[in-house]
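User: We ran a pulldown and think these components assemble together. Before we commit to crystallization trials, I'd like a predicted model of the whole complex to look at. Sequences follow.
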Amino acid sequence: MTISSTQKIREKKRRFLAREQLIIDTALSLLIDAGIERVTVAEIARQAGIGKGTVYKHFESKSEIMMRIMLDYEKSTATNLLAGIQATENGDPGAVVKAYFESRLANPALDRLVQQLEIRLEEEPSVARQMEELLAIRRSSIAKLSSMVEKLIKRGILENVPAHYHYLASWALAQGAVDVCFNRGFVDQIDDKEGLLRFITNIGVTMGNRGQLRG
Amino acid sequence: MTISSTQKIREKKRRFLAREQLIIDTALSLLIDAGIERVTVAEIARQAGIGKGTVYKHFESKSEIMMRIMLDYEKSTATNLLAGIQATENGDPGAVVKAYFESRLANPALDRLVQQLEIRLEEEPSVARQMEELLAIRRSSIAKLSSMVEKLIKRGILENVPAHYHYLASWALAQGAVDVCFNRGFVDQIDDKEGLLRFITNIGVTMGNRGQLRG
Amino acid sequence: MTISSTQKIREKKRRFLAREQLIIDTALSLLIDAGIERVTVAEIARQAGIGKGTVYKHFESKSEIMMRIMLDYEKSTATNLLAGIQATENGDPGAVVKAYFESRLANPALDRLVQQLEIRLEEEPSVARQMEELLAIRRSSIAKLSSMVEKLIKRGILENVPAHYHYLASWALAQGAVDVCFNRGFVDQIDDKEGLLRFITNIGVTMGNRGQLRG
Amino acid sequence: MTISSTQKIREKKRRFLAREQLIIDTALSLLIDAGIERVTVAEIARQAGIGKGTVYKHFESKSEIMMRIMLDYEKSTATNLLAGIQATENGDPGAVVKAYFESRLANPALDRLVQQLEIRLEEEPSVARQMEELLAIRRSSIAKLSSMVEKLIKRGILENVPAHYHYLASWALAQGAVDVCFNRGFVDQIDDKEGLLRFITNIGVTMGNRGQLRG
DNA sequence: TATGAATGAGGCTTCATTCAT
DNA sequence: AATGAATGAAGCCTCATTCAT
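Assistant: Here's a predicted model for the assembly, 860 residues in total across the polymer chains.
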């Protein structure tokens, strides 16, 4: 019976984790659809078809759920970035930026939500530890980016300015591109979002390249 | 006696308006420092040194205070943009973008706050009318930008893509530049914010110019 | 100049009293139209075209304004009742009841308002004194009614039951008749209010007469 | 285990409903004792020994609690009325009126409270639906009364006037009778309330009967 | 273990009344 | 004398979190 007991425990764990993911997915969906202010724990539980108390078996607080969404997203972005860095080092100088933009613009609603969550949770003491973890991931990506950018500068591909100028400019443009997708006053005149985002991505790829700036 | 009476009334009005400004300034300061969620009407009143009820003599609701901040900012941005358009039409093609970036990056904390407020008030029915007013201002600016961009395209200065590609890209970059200033994980490594913002502004000025994009 | 000074003072008093009446009339009109809960002192002042502070020069409190309306109404009702008693003693046994009903049903909206005000102010300590005055008027009327009813009983016109049975029954019917005029669920089916009120008034005149009750 | 689980759920439901009733009863008691204006949700909760938030698990708003009291009362009155109509159709012409009066005068304080609540909630949009339900009950009762009254008119028992004259007169007298019980200035002189109410009820039974009115 | 009823701190807003001008 | 800006107590309601079952 040891085997079956082990199996039971595994099954239990599996179901526990599945439930956790269900909570996250439900929360994510609600947060995107209704906006951060309008989502309550009660509603998450209701939509997920579980009890409110159960939510608190998985997460210490509402903030932790949101933090988890951020963390998952940051990890995924970091992974995509890493792949881009790899591609760049394999010869295509624009690959990182492209990968980065595509990663962030693949699901602008999610990206924007995470932007908002970050502001919301910035000062939340209850998730300070996880926020630190998130920042560690970001710092690690940044370190890799930095060294990559420095190589490109040495190879004469990028302008010779501090490395962070380059990747922060990219970050900024991507961040803003996401916002463009949702700004009232813009959305109604954008009939060709794909084209716009391609245009912006191209700018991202080109900007900071040697010979581009006249300032 | 008529004179003194008139003077008294004027003095009263002046003080009333001064108090209104005091409320706005106090609210603004708190919103920037503490974050939208953490600011209450009670706290605004306390910081302004007035009673809670007094706030409601000047504004119908908390949302209206925030809306007012947005509106003031939008108007100021529109004015700066207009001046930039004028300068561009007087011969300097990069003037608009430069003016726009300088306007938005002059007080990034305020710009970022307004970004957040817009998201927060987007669906608030109680300020729908003022939001419409704000969008009208924005639309008017956009119309002027559009015609200006089209001229620059005709003159061969800008890439021949839909006009809104150009100004939305600028908007996006400015938006993102503001965020860069506050993103935890970035701020600590930016020792030379001025340089960075100049770099980004230059990108803004250059991007979309003919011969810049390789896509 | 003594004369002119006296005249001035009189003129002032006259205007002061006129203003007081204006406040009462405005309040009355608002109370009837909007309902007791929805009338504020600010609105009374605004409608009357005077300052809020001025209202408080005439009345100690909002309750006092309402009390004054009640008192005025009670006095008017008492006067009408007295005339009716007189008429009854002059030979028409039904005159009191008729006068009473006509008095109360002449302006049902006002009567109903006063009913509501009485409930509202019943326990209000700030107008306890005036309430006492009102009750004194009522008691005085009751005393006269009592003696009149007793005469009618002796003359064999009314049933020989305690005098207050008679006049309280009348009071009740009048009170209810007023309510009928406003009850949702009734009003829409009353196309002939005059006829209904005449019918009820007739009941009032007849009820308690000898030979009417079978119980 | 299924049984005990089912039992547990039932027990829970029972207690939930019991608490709901507790809230209603507490509210009712406070409303009668202190008057509508002086009852707050906080006080209801305190008196019921529960938290403020709990009240809102059972009712959407304070108005809904009051509406519920009204609805319960209207239903009970309608039931009593129906029984009276039945009795009248079984041969006793005065049975309806008697049943109706007894129903309303059984607990005058409650009846009066409901009168007040109706005025208060008349224009409250948040309970408009329930108010409609209440009026539907009332209309249904009225329809039955109408047809009954018409029969009695045909049988020559009641005066040949529009049917609603009869039942509205009854309603009015009952309404007023309730008010008599509480009117300051009357209550102190009523030592024999039972007798008075019997007297008034008799009037109700007799009034409108053929040969009673002289106009 | 899962549940959801219960909680109460805390937010927004109203309005009678005061008082400096 | 008249004004209306200022006040703050008091009310309603929300919702993250707890805990008994």
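Chain A touches chain B through 52 residues (CB under 8 Å). That may be worth checking against your pulldown data before setting up trials.

User: Thanks, that helps.
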